[in-house]
Amino acid sequence: MREGSDEEANAVKDVLSTRLGLRAHLLTITWKDVLEGTGYEHPKDLPNFETVARRQRYRRMAIQLSNSKIASLFLAHHQDDQYETILMRLISGHSAAGLLGMRAASDIPECQDIHGAYQSGMIDDQASRAPMINYRPTKYDLKSIKAQMMADFDPATVAKELTEGTRASAYLEDELDHYVPKARLMLPAAPPEVEDGGCMVYRPLLEFSKDRLTATCEANGIPWFEDATNHDATLTMRNAVRHITKNYTLPVALQKPAILDMSRRLRERAQLDENEVVRLLGRTIIRDFEPTAGTVVVQLPTFRIPRLRRTRNKTLRRAKRLEHYRYIAALLVKRLIAIVTPELQGPAAANLHNQVLRIFPSLNDNPSAYPDHPKAFNISGVHFHPVRTSSNPKAHMNWYLAREPYVSGRPLPKVNFPRLPLRLRWRRRPELWHWPHWKPWRLWDGRFWIRICNRTNVHTAVAPFDARHAKAFRESLPDGRARDKLMALLKHHAPGKVRYTLPAIYTHSDYEEALQNYERFADVEKAMMLEEADIKKQWQELDHKAQREEYYKSRDWETRQQQLDQDDELASEKDKNRVLVALPTLGIAKPGLDNWIRYEVRYKRVDKSTLEKSAKDESEVAWLSSWTAKVLVALIGGVIILALSVVQDQSGVFWGVLTTTITTPIAFFSAPAPGPKGGSAPAPSSADDGTMANSTTVDLGWYPPSQSLINNLTNVVSNGTTGVYGFIYNSSYTPDDEYGTYNWCNMPHVRAREYVRPSGEYELVYVELIHRHHKRTPYAANSFPVESYTWDCNDEGLYYFARPFSSTSGSPLPHPDAGRNSSALTYWEAFSGLNPFEALAPGWKGTCQFPQITSGGLDDSWQHGADLYAVYHDLLGFLPGRAEEEGWREKARYRVTNNVITSEVAGMVLNGMWGTAASAPLLVQPSGADSLEPDYTCASSSAQFADVQSAGGNPAWGAHLEAAAGLFAALDGVSGVGGSDEGFHASFDHYYDNLSARQCHGRPLPCKLVEGAGGGLVNDTEECVTQGMADEVYRFGNWEYSQIYRDSGAESLAASVGSFGVWVAELAAHLRGVMGGGDGTIWFHNVAHDGSVSRLLGMLQVDNMVWPGMGSEVVFEVWRGPGGGGSIATTTAGAAVAVNSGTRGRETREQKTSVSGYYVRVLFGGRVLTSSNPSLGTLDLVPVEILLA
């Protein structure tokens, strides 16, 4: 690699050999093998040459260490290297863990798959004649043991027993065998051994500077060698850092003493953290570690956050303490993950934040926001599954950790082992084939070390246990007892899907058939007259070409086998020909396999301290807790006695009473009348009973929304427009720093993290919100004539049942133990049955209803409820607690539409808010008269909406259909929808729903279905809906909603009022009721549809209209604040409230005092809604009189 490096290496070797008397090895890297397949001809051309060279150096040394049985590798990294390393990591932005620097002792890096070098080899070493570490007793110890045994030996007793015999067997239980029923015990499989050992890397010179080491060598006559390229500051980052530190004066904080001192402090802190983890392990019960399947069952401790003194910075101190506890918990979880994970590098503790909050909900800022029954999750290839062993809700939760099931579409872990070479099979019968040497140990799936000795003429492979081969393998076992044993072992060691993560040994065809059809039978018959030595001699006399010819003369099946091994296109056929022959960790194999294939399996090394320092059962945890409690009681008792001796009568209690007088204005919503600007004329509000002393004239005219990219048709169809304005369509997740971004799959809503509370002079008294249901399957009407895949909902249940109310319990709620006939919690489960018409039905197939809230949508609904509770209870203290006695049922009401999907969402929201799984009423109006959906008939409104969405009545609509003609044609070509289908071509509603539902649930965009070669329909991957086409559909959809509900002048406003005005009138009645004292309801929650939210936004004249996505939310907050008896400015028609005439509502509006003392804040997407109507403007604490007028 560097000119003169060979001479330099030999010079170092000579010095070590001649002057120090050390045996030195000169190791070289075969770069030809490294560069194969990279496209580079020289190593220096590699873009990551330094990284590759480092990896190859370690791997070359590791192989030498393993072969030489060397367990320790000493490296000469010194203090200056440590300084440079930390400085580079500091420049690169590493966290505290990276700034610890190089460790003085560690496992050899870059060698995780080299047996004997990395965390393995101890078992083989102990089995050898001359182990590297000898645990066997010495000869002296053996003599001592023998002497002690002979001292206990009584010759007379032995002689008597030999002549007279013993009265009974050596086993006491034998006398009772006659009375004990014979039960067949199914013993668990012998677990595989767990690896240990490996090579450790030590850096003993980290405390010494380079100058001191150089001086020491020179003083002892040892020459100092240094790579000349180390002085080239342009070659590597380390060289540049070295050049800067040598030739420039850095700030004191970046100089070597400060950097090394910082690293030392961080290491001390890290050690303290590890000590805390060890103490936490003492309260962690590891119940069952199973190396057979690589699983473990753990019972984690509970964090109890101590109460802090009431001080000014109490909240900050609690947050810091929570942050520290989370980090310690993450270190514990990281240790547990290491037992099971297939990943060679585990996760960083900083990346386990969300998982820690799931496992330890008490460490959340708001513990009640997390469910009492946590769900399973995956991290670093480990599946965490919660397991309850008791019906007691306060019982500790167990977690079952297993390897994450393999994901379809990703390559499965596989290790190949070759068959017996042809030279050892040539002209021999199979029974004369000799056993070859064991193949090296191979690491499979990052968890199991496996090696195979194969003397058959078929290749073998280790791959996951495949359900497709299970039946054939079970039937190959000799009898029913063996089959029962297999099923019992699988049930015991690998229940459920865990069994499909077990390693299995496959042959690439049936080895028994291959042995019967051994190659070139005639040649074998002739060879029977020859001795073994003659056969070997004949083979050796053949040149290479002749040997290859002999190889290719073998039977057709062998040639075919070779093709299967080399041709990736035949992968499916290859899997079909594979034969499962053994499950090595269970010790189950086909009969007679050990005559031809032998195998050994071991589990990877597991940190012994994790297993040894954990508690074994509850008694250990109870003892530790009891001992700790006694110590604390003693300490606290002493402190109390000391305090009582100092503090006398210095205590007091203060009580305060808050009283409020309510003035109640009465008004009502007015529908707009035709007026100027194509809009509506203002109408004066009415006062009822003269209670509003100074009535307010509010402008009810239509005002256009802001001009934006969304409602600009030219931008929508422009070839230069890409994406959808940064909107999200492919996931429910929005990063915290981007929260507030439009996410169709899960729209932003009120959350504690972003919520802005008004000043302390305002008191929240009532909240009413309306939100669209969360994400669902598509509607059946929006499906294509033939869909390319099914849509299954087996991961949830649709509950449909009715239950009579109790007539004796005194409660209006249905209860299963109410003394009357009750009902089972029945739910729908789709099935095909014998319905001959199902296959003919167009659209989606599967186990879902269309529509149905999906499992992901249910999770989003629950989180929505939890977030609302976190704001209005935890942050504001407005909602009552979750306990039944706090009366939340009387204070909170929920309403849904006749469409069952809103009830599905409401149930999850209720549980997310109140943590209840009990019965709860949902208000619903009769079908046909439901104002929330809305479902009532309004002929004028329907006509107005129809006019807006027609080319004749709305030229802009006609222009957009004309511009969309090409996109419609392209979509029709893929979907199979006919061009005359009005439902798909009157607007983009159907295509929008179909495509967005796919993408929100991680499903692919559709491709054209064509007749396959083998019959049936297959995807034509050359003709699909592209992401660009989908984005254009989404842009058109948002333009359409803005056009329908905002941009079409007074007609769009009047259409919304006509079809949704009844619900708005109901909202107004609720607000008036609150100001009049109310009925005790403080929370009214409506779950509706996009049409409901869109009409409401249209009536509020939102300044930027979008298509309300899944979970879209509009919140009306009523606050009591300054006012009551004051006056409010009266405005003239067309003028804005509190701003000069002619200004727009989106400008800043001066805060006005409410006559009644009540104010309304309207939030859309968690943020204050801005209206184009100047009377409303920014709806942030608007006097209620303005909204009601």
From TrEMBL:
The keyword Ligase applies. One of its GO terms (biological process) is tRNA processing. It is an enzyme of class 6 (ligase). Residues 2-108, 193-243 form the tRNA(Ile)-lysidine/2-thiocytidine synthase N-terminal domain. Its EC number is 6.3.4.19. CDD domains: TilS_N, UDM1_RNF168_RNF169-like. Keywords: ATP-binding, Ligase, Nucleotide-binding, tRNA processing. The keyword Ligase applies. This is tRNA(Ile)-lysidine synthetase. It catalyses: cytidine(34) in tRNA(Ile2) + L-lysine + ATP = lysidine(34) in tRNA(Ile2) + AMP + diphosphate + H(+). It comes from Cytospora paraplurivora. GO terms for molecular function: ATP binding; tRNA(Ile)-lysidine synthase activity. Pfam families: ATP_bind_3 (PF01171).
